[in-house]
Amino acid sequence: MFSDSFGRDITYLRVSVTDRCNFRCQYCMPEDGVDFEERQDLLTADEIEEVVGIFVDDGVRKVRLTGGEPLLRPDLPEIVDRLTDLEGLEHVAITTNGYLLGRKAEALADAGLDSLNVSLDSLDDEMFEELTRLGDLERVLDGIETARDHGLTDLKLNTVVVGGYNDHELEDLANFAIDRGLILRFIEFMPLGDQQLWDGPGGECVPANEIRSRLSERWTLESDSDTYGAGPARYMRLHGPNTPDEGHPLGIIGAVTECFCNDCNRMRITATGQVRACLADDHSLSVRAPLRTYSDTDERRRAIESVVQRALGQKDRSHDFDLEGSTVTDTTMSQIGG
Kindly report the CA angle at 16 between 12 and 21, in degrees rounded to 5? Predict the structure, then answer.
């Protein structure tokens, strides 16, 4: 099993399949975009299948496909289909902005996708457009319903809470999720990349305890021991207006103020095959190099496992996020792979 120098086992792998995106979310990418990688430098479907298979053999049980925007990749259903056939892999998920979901949902469901997360940062058309720059709220909402119609009912919503922008919508977003029986996760805004991405005043992190405090003005909050997945969200149940008798689950990812590094079970592979042991650390090593260097399968496996172990050996005990917004990496979220 892959594990780091602090004894944390890696059971969850996030794989970026592209660095391209059809949105330009203010907390993720500059308005003019970034210098995208050449397509021949991206991992192929064969390469993704092989490297993920090695991770699965060494203990990974859940894989999440990210971007950029993963639905921009034409062979994404094929990739999902290949991964779901890997013996030992228990769960394949996707995180998407939802813009193309209406067109792609049926193919993804047919490929065996287990679950998906859809980014939904606002229910207000103007705010949604301001935060995403190129987004279309109505199309995203339609995509969510289309996905559910095709049986993709294990669907969660992700909201990055940005002070001064969408933090006044917490109650509306929670009610939206409750009405549809969906799990919503509020995510603290993280200081990644150049903070001059913003068109106007820079975003601010709204601490997890403040999010809970605002929710408690409307609902009674009960701690929920269920994790609803392999990620870092901490869950509670909302009791009160509009909720069922058993309450409704809601998660908060407090990456900045409520560090969950002690329980980290994750690694990331970028679209070009760079292995990152931590979202907040620019140290990375390439698995693409051995994939394209060695013709012998066993040699490739040994080389890739060596790369992963070296990357894990560089992993710190904890990240350096803080509420002052100190940038811990110059790499944007879209380039890392969300």
Answer: 140
Which is it for strands 91-96 and 115-119: parallel, antiparallel or unpaired? parallel
Structure tokens at 158: 């992700």
CATH code, 113: 3.20.20.70
Determine, yes or no, domain membership for 4.
Answer: no
Phi-psi region of 247 (alpha: psi -120 to 50; beta: other; left: phi over 0): left
Instruction: Give the pLDDT confidence score for residue 272 in this predicted structure.
Output: 96
Question: Checking DSSP bridges between strand 62-66 and strand 115-119, what pairing results, if any?
Answer: unpaired
End-to-end CA distance of the chain: 24
Task: Identify the pLDDT of residue 230.
Answer: 82
Its domain, for residue 303, covers 12-336
| 3-state SS class at 223 | strand
> Token pair 């999440």 is at which residue?
64
* CB 178 within 8 Å of CB 242: yes
pLDDT recorded at residue 213: 97
Tokens 């995510």 — which residue? 187
Indicate whether 2 belongs to any domain: no
pTM: 0.92
pLDDT of residue 201: 59
Stretches where the chain sits below pLDDT 70 are 191-202, 319-338
